[in-house]
Design goal:
The structure is a homodimer. By secondary structure, the first copy, chain A, is of the alpha/beta class. In chain A, 30% of the residues lie in helices and 24% in strands. Chains A, B: Pfam families: AMP-binding, AMP-binding_C.
Chain lengths: 549, 549
């Protein structure tokens, strides 16, 4: 036996419930605001473990959840892993066939489901062989009309609040989450006790998202999505107050919780905060307690950072991936930028940020070389570290593609500036590879969409014999626009900011950009429907690659 | 392969030297103040690794240091562990026979030694078979008169600043430190890569000793003593500026470094800060940059906390052990105490504090039961966690005594108050076990020494047939004191604060309390020289134990 004891989650809760027995856990439910203490929470995790044991859950078994953010979901977060089982949080926004695939791939034995999500789960489970033998527990006091299920409170009732938590190995799988891949089936990521412990510690550092005992933490990012960025664990390690916003919170719900519970740190995707900003236009909004809004998922517009700055709230950009547990970077302001002007500071804060301690990265270009940190050169971001998985669950095909020597190939194409701030400029599968160099489809799209007569634009790489790929722009003009004039104006616009070899070889006007289920541009469909090499015939410019200049 | 990549120290330096290449490392040496950057530091750790490899150091070999706090010593901190070898920091204050035992037990192959410490090491090494085959490198540009040794800069010279750092297993031993046991030979503690990684992360949390990139960190606690409480690693993980105070810094040296380098966080034992406080009486001292003084080793007097408070500096009590890497507790003020009056806050801040996240503890009394957290009941503190060792190096005898089921029995007798703050009241071997209850020798000593006619006092337990042990006080009166009167006054003093069964059965007057090599009262010697059961004959009070009342 060398080294210290195993790294597991349970001691975080031990500390919180013993040193801070009266600190609150608050939850918005369909009954209104419910609240209890760490001490009661600790008791209920033990009752749940006893109930799961009686049901037949053993070490190594997988338990699913299909729930929003609330205290009962949080109870599964510590109870299931600490008894040695594995918590599999299922994303209810996925299409039925993905849910079926996931439940089958993970081999879930029991699924906890919200009352409001029971119809969706019932639909996915109906006549699906993947759900054979799976039982359901409905969160709350009542059963379900759609599913044969035990009410959660009945499931817990009569069980002891003492449980002999086992001493687990740190390699014990504790959690599981599937990536919502845009192509093919979702890929499962297993989180060991050690990975979740590491992620908690790394997040808790001043370089991550530090939390203290007087903080009030509200994760708006869903608990079905990479453990709500690990906030339920980090907040417990800090013995902070937890606030869970419940099913489908609207801006008014969030505003009420922030004001009434004194939320100091919250986290969510940009659209959540856009909603809050709109709400604030017509309503009084007291943000005096709020310190930090963590934004991830996609980039926050600069104006959003400024809006919160004006109100004394720090908008902290963060970036991560399911494969990373998930936190990878935060865009904290470096001490070297303290004396820079506000615009220069914003330039950095609007990026994805710097790696948190103990992660490492490489940024690899087309030729397999590491790119220079100059804020301009592109490469694919590779990362590794104690919180980064080194494989997908039962997916050797995907492993070969996405991992190399312990490194995760993130699939994100980035620049790194002189200060070490990462900026995502494209996805690796969308970046346009022209003459050995990369062109960012995202940058071209944003530039084109800045034209007032353009409603949507997507730029994709079209195969090209000489240059490998060349960019073609698909543009949806606003009604009645003269596309002949628009052609010229778009090209002029692009010439201002980009080298000639970046300019699209062709602009195609279409009625609508195809979208994915979650509303994003589906470049896969564009490529399938619209592009073939004939688009480019006779149109290759002389300056198609920089090496050729 | 399950989970993330191994937890090792090297990525901390990777991040600091890549994201903060120009951040400084400053060192006071016999040549004055020397300074360079993380980037140069990183280069020199690679040069050192190449030099060590050429010398013949392999993965798993042990490399000793016999040095004060300076940049070259810090170079060994990352270089040796990151090449897979093990850094063994030797305490030069130990007696020669302990140094010989340690070098033999650890099997050191090469020892880095300070110029100023070479005479001491040469003395220990002279004609000692334990030192056979051990080579020496003297820190600095020059050789040594006392030892046949290579100068450090010569050792490094000509080596490449590139080194292919291996991907290490997290169980790889990385460090080693010996406890300076008061009885028997020192006991070795091995630190794996994982333990040091865990300790770094746990220390870096807001609940530990958080550090940021704008911090300037000066460990005064020696780097030969439990890695200077891990500060060189934590400061690097935070990419803070390092300041090393060099050999035997006096208060003026420390004051100069604090003022000129803008030190924000420093750490040391109380006597260091007493020295600084005395210096400040006669000299201007600018503490405006200083945020936190971390105090451990022994308890800081309340007046010291107040003195720093008056100057806008937080004195943060911390407690730890060599076996714990070492940090165990910090006496940060809980949010629940924010609104209490200053005296109540001080009551808590003057204790050793609360466990940092992911450590667990038990406090076990004489009967093997956990004591109540009421601030009064005593028990021995047991701890466990990822940074706490579970064994001594090659010492099965000591392992059996000090470890149980992964728990370290700290040997400290403590109370825990309702808020969870730990206070050390005695050492387990010194606490007096009377009638199934424990009496704190330390509390009685402090109470007796509060009498103006007492210069020193030690209280030890003397074996007793009925009560197991009974306290006897050994008192050194100030010159010319009437000991007959003193007897009465001491007993009156104790009666005010303690139950009758705590009162010593006898007071013996002696000329001097025997001391250990480091100047502490040697109760072992008191027991050996002075006590036998006859001291207590006919003196047993009726109230010798509370159960008997």
């Amino acid at each position: 036996m060398s080294g210290g004891t195993d790294q597991t989650l349970r001691p975080f809760l031990w500390r919180a419930s013993n040193l801070y027995p009266d600190r609150e856990i608050v939850s918005r439910t369909h009954r209104g605001i419910e609240r209890y203490t760490y001490s009661e929470y600790d008791d209920r995790t033990a009752m749940l473990a006893n109930a799961l044991e009686e049901y037949g859950i053993d070490e190594g078994d997988r338990v699913g959840t299909f729930c929003w953010n609330h205290h009962r979901h949080f109870e599964t977060y510590f109870s299931v892993p600490s008894m040695g089982a594995q918590l599999h949080t299922i994303n209810p926004l996925l299409p039925d066939e993905h849910i079926q695939y996931i439940v089958d791939n993970a081999d879930d034995e029991l699924i906890f489901v919200d009352q409001s999500l029971a119809p969706k789960l019932a639909g996915a489970a109906a006549e699906a062989p993947e759900f054979e033998g799976v039982d359901f527990v409905v969160m709350g006091e009542e059963g379900s009309e759609e599913l044969e299920a035990t009410p959660y409170e009945t499931f817990l009732e009569g069980h002891s609040a003492d449980y002999e938590w086992p001493d687990l190995d740190e390699d014990q799988p504790a959690g599981m989450c599937y990536t919502s891949g845009t192509t093919g089936n979702p890929k499962g990521v297993e989180y060991t006790q050690q990975m979740l412990w590491s992620h908690t510690m790394m997040t808790l550092t001043p370089q991550g998202i530090p939390m203290e005992d007087d903080d009030v933490i509200m994760p708006v990012v869903p608990m079905f999505h990479v453990n709500a960025w690990g906030f339920p664990f980090t907040a417990t390690a800090a013995a902070a107050k937890h606030v869970y916003p419940g099913p489908s919170p609207d801006p008014e719900d969030l505003a009420g919780l922030i004001e009434n519970e004194g939320v100091t740190i919250t986290a969510g995707v940009p659209t959540v905060w856009l909603g809050l900003m709109e709400y604030a236009e017509d309503n009084e909004l007291d943000l005096s307690a709020l310190d930090t809004v963590v934004v991830g998922g996609s980039a926050a517009p600069r104006s959003m950072i400024e809006w919160f700055d004006d109100r004394g709230v720090e908008l902290l950009h963060a970036w991560g991936m399911t494969e990373m547990s998930p936190l990878g970077t935060t865009a904290q302001l470096k001490y070297t930028l303290d004396d820079e002007d506000y615009e220069t500071q914003l330039d950095h804060r609007a990026k994805q940020g710097m790696l948190i301690p103990s992660l490492e990265m490489r940024v690899i270009d087309e030729s397999g070389e590491e790119v220079e940190w100059n804020g301009e050169d592109f490469g694919e971001l590779w990362v590794r570290g104690p919180s980064v998985t080194q494989e997908y669950f039962k997916r050797p095909d995907a492993n070969e593609e996405d991992f190399e020597d312990g490194w995760l190939k993130t699939g994100d194409v980035v620049t790194v500036d002189e200060e070490g701030y990462i900026k995502i400029v494209d996805r690796a599968k969308d970046v346009i590879k022209s003459g050995g160099e990369w062109i960012s489809s995202v940058e071209l799209e944003n530039a084109i969409m800045a034209h007032e007569d353009v409603s949507e634009a997507a730029v994709v790489g079209v195969p090209h014999e000489r240059w490998q790929e060349r960019p073609v722009a698909f543009v949806v003009p606003t009604g009645g626009t003269d596309t002949g004039r628009l052609d010229e104006e778009i090209m002029d616009l692009l010439r201002e900011d980009y080298p000639k070899w970046w300019l699209p070889d062709a602009i195609e006007y279409i009625d609508e950009i195809p979208k994915t289920a979650t509303g994003k541009f589906s470049k896969k469909d564009i490529r399938k429907e619209y592009t073939d090499e004939s688009l480019l015939e006779g149109s290759v410019p002389e300056e198609a690659a920089p090496d050729d200049d």
